[in-house]
Amino acid sequence: MPKTLADIKKSLDLNLGKRLLLKANGGRRKTIERSGVLTETYPSIFIIELDQDENSFERVSYSYTDVLTEAVELTFIEEGTETISVS
Question: Residue 41 in contact with residue 9, Cβ under 8 Å?
Answer without folding.
Answer: yes
